[in-house]
Amino acid sequence: MALENFNPLKKKGQLATRREPENPFFALQHRMNRMFDDFLGEPFDLFGTAAKANMFMPQMNVSETEKEIIVTADLPGVEEKDLDISITKDELTIKGEKKSETEEKGKDFYRMERSYGSFSRTVMLPQGIDESKINAELKKGVLKLTIPKSAEAAAERKKIQIKTE
Asked: What are the strands of the beta sheet with 68-74, ordered from one edge?
């Protein structure tokens, strides 16, 4: 009986090869991903790189001054008609769809690539905003929302003194 019959990784007619990544951290990641794949029944990526490759999630910054809240979102390639911005008493939601299409023709080839992806980001807002005076501006792929605070909310702000020993 040949030794190849005892190799559990080898199926009849196949070469048995098993290669682990050289880096021990990548090996651990690979093993963890396989464990989750087996448990969930679908591909799993511990660091989310596979999901990130197929999903567009815009970067956002939120800042607050005494008079207003400023929200900026990086939306390269997103047009105004593909955006939906809504606000409730305590939430701001920015939804949109990014569409990209490139076409290249040559003498001996034709290449067409399309990518589509939708996104939704929600930001919790403090009470006391003036919804009627919100300003939204999309310029060079950056959405800027200026959300003024109501006069009552701006007046309620209280500075807290810090004591040192």
From this structure: 60-64, 68-74, 142-148, 135-139
Q: Could you report the per-residue pLDDT of 123-148, keeping only the tens digit for each?
A: 888 888 888 889 999 999 899 999 99
Parallel, antiparallel, or unpaired: how do β-strands 110-124 and 91-105 relate?
Answer: antiparallel
Tokens of 150: 């109501």
Fold of 56-156: Immunoglobulin-like (2.60.40)
Q: Are 82 and 56 in contact (CB under 8 A)?
A: no
Per-residue tokens: 131: 């919804």
CA 66 vs CA 69, 113, 148, 158: distances in Å: 8, 47, 9, 10
Torsion of CA 51, 55, 61, 67, to 10 degrees: -130
Buried-state track 29-48, b at ≥16 Cβ within 10 A, e below 16 = eeeebeeeeeeeeeebeeee
DSSP state of 11: P
State the pTM of this model: 0.57
Q: How many residues does the chain have?
A: 165
Cα 19 from Cα 17, distance rounded (Å)? 6
Residue spans of the domains in the chain: they are: 20-54, 56-156
Cα angle value 78/79/80 (rounded, 5°): 125
